[in-house]
Amino acid sequence: MKKSTIVRSILAWGIYIMYIVFTALAILRAYTYRTEDGQLGAEIFRYFTNDSAILCAVTCIPAMFYMLVLKGGRAARMPAWILILRYIGTVCVTLTMGTVLAYLGPLYGYEYMFAGEDLFLHLVGPVLMIFTFIFLESDRPLLRKYTWTALIPIQIYAIYYIHNVLVISKKKGRWPDFYAFNTNNRWYVSLLFMLIITYLIGLILRVLHNTMYLARHRS
C-alpha cells in the first residue's frame, strides 16, 4: 500500500472518531439542557441540525470499519454503498451549515447560532465532513445517477416538519415555525427552494469528489 494511502486512511479514521464522539457529546448536552420549562429531552430531535448530525455520524461507522479493518494491508476502493451513505450524510450537514450561514445566522444572530455545541454542529463538523468526502474518500467516483439520493433525508424531514407545524392541532403539540419556512403561508416555496439548494449542494460535492478522484488516479 502506498504511504499516501496509509496516511489518508489514518486521517480519515481519526476524523470519523472525532466526529462521532463530538456529535454524541453535543447531542447529549442538548438533550440534557435545562430551560425554564424543564429539560429539552426528545424535543431536540425536531431540529434538522441534530438529525442531520446523527445521520452523518452513523454513516461514518461503516466507513471507519472499512478503513480500519476491511481494507487490511492492501489498497481497495470503498464499497459503493458506503460511499453513497457518506455522500448523503455529508450533503445533510453541508445543508445545515449553509442554512445557518445564509439564513438562520442573519435571522437569529451568528453569536447565537455558533454558541456552545452549535459551533461544532453548525460549522466545524460540516467542514470536517466536506473535507473527508472530497479528499479522503475519493478512491471511488460517485456516479451521477446517485445525486438524487441526497434529497431523501430532506424530503423525509419536510414531511415531519410540515406535519408538526401545519397539520396537527395546538392541543396535540403543534410546533412553532422555528425555521420560519411558513412565512406568509408559503411553505411550499420554502420546500421547493430547499430541495433545489440540496440538489445543488449534492451536485457540487459530487463534482468535487470526482475531480479529486480523477486527479489522484492521473498522478
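(ticket continues) Second input and output from the same batch:
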Amino acid sequence: MKNEYKTVFVLFLIALVIRILFVFISPVKIWDETVYANLGYDLSKNPFDYSFANNGWSDFVPGGWPKAGFRAPLLPYTLSIFYFFKLDFLIDFLIPLIGALSVIITFFLAKNMFNEKIAFYSAAFLSFLPLHVYYSGKILTDVFSSFFVILTVIFFWYGFERNVTKFKVLFGIILALSILARYTNLWLIPIFPIYLIFKNRNLSFMKDKWVWLTICIFFAILSPWFIYGIITYNSPLGAFEHALKASSYWGGTQPWYFFFENSFQMFSILSIVFAASLLYIIFNKKTRKDQKIIFLLLWFFMIFVFASIMPHKEDRFFMSLTPPFVIISALFINNIVKYQKFVFGLIIILLILSCSSLFVIVSQNSYSQVNICFLESNLFLKSVENNSVVITDESPIIYYYSKKETHFYPRPFSIDSIRNLIDKNYNDRPVYILFSEYDMPLDRPENMKIKTILDSNFEIVYKCSENKNLSIIYKYR
C-alpha cells in the first residue's frame, strides 16, 4: 500500500510539473480562455448575472450577444471563487492541477477495474498524452470537464457494479456537475443504461429505488440552470439550445474522419498502440466478453461517434475519451509477454519527445513579435483612464488584460460609422481604438483600408514598434 501511494504521488508530481510548464507556452491567452476568466471575474461581483449585458465586454455569438448561457457555467463559477477571495493569481494553475488529479483518479479507476499494473500504465500514458498535456495549460472546459467525467465513471462503477449505495447518489451529483462543466457531456448519459441493459440482459436495474433517487438528484442539481433558461431564453433548455446553435457558428465544418486525420498529433505513438489494442480485443475471445472492456469501448465509441458527427470539430472535443483510450492501450501492453517493460518505456520516451517538440514548436510560434506587441498594447490600455472605452475586435481578450469597457469595430467600417458609434454611445468618455496585426494582418486589403482611415483621422498614442505597424493605439479627439 505504501508503494502504491508513492507511485501515485510521483505520477501526480510529474503530471503537475509538465502541465504547469504548458501554462507558459504562449504570452497571450486565447479568446475562449479570457471568456471563461472574464465570466468568473464578473460573477465574483454579481453571481446572479450570467451574461455579457452589463459588464463592458462581449463574446461574439449568435442568439444575442448579452446571453452567456451557451457557455457551460461550472468553470466560470469556480473561477469566481478565486476572484472573490483575491486569489486570481492562482487561476493559471487550476487546470494544470485538475489535469494532474485526472491522472491520479484514472489510476484508481483502472486499478478498481483491473489491477495496479494496468493502473500504472494508464496513468503514465495520460501523464504524457499530448492532447491532455497541452490543454491542461489552458483555462478551458475540456480537461476540467473530463475530470468530472472520470469521477462520474468511478462512482457509477462503485455504485452499480459493486452495489455501494452511497456511490449511486454521488454518481447522480457528479454526472450533473459534469454536464454543467461542459454541455457535450450529455453524450455520456446513454452509456450507463446501455451498459446495465447489456450486463443484466433486462431492465431489472430500473426496480432499484436508488436509481430513481439518483435521477431525482441529477435533475435537482440541474434545476437552477433550467430556471436560468426559462428566465433568459423562455425555455428550460434554452442554454443548451443556444450552445447547439453556437457550436455550428464558428470554426467551419470539418470532415467526419477528423479524428483519424489528427489522431497522431493528439495521441502520438499511443494512437498506434490503441489501434493494436482494438485488434487484440477483436481477435481475443476472453477480452471480447469482458464486461469491463465492453464498458470502456462503449465509453470511447459513444464520445467518438457524437464528436465525429458534429459539424465543427476540434481536437479538444475528444478529451472525454482519453481515459478509456489510455486504459485500453494499457490493457494491450499488459498482455505483451516478452519485452513488456521495454515496450512501455519506449512508449513513454516517445510520448515525452512528442510533448517536448509540441512545447518548442508552439512556444516559438507564440512568442512572436506580433503577439508580444499585442500583449504590450493591452498593458498600455490597462494604464489609461478607468472610464475609457476600447474599440477592438478582441473584446474578451482586451477586457481580460485591461479591465476596460470594449466595443466591437463597426461593420462596415468607415470614418462615418466609427464617428457615429462614438458620438452616439461614448460622447463624454475617453475612447481608444486598437489596431493590431494580431487579429488584423495588413496583407488583407480590408485591414489596410481600416488602418489608413485611422492614421488619417485619429491621434496615435501608442505604437509597439517604431518601424512596424504591429500594434497601434489611437485616441478619439
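Agent notes: The chain has a mean pLDDT of 93. The chain is about 65% helix and 5% strand. Closing as not reproducible unless the customer responds.
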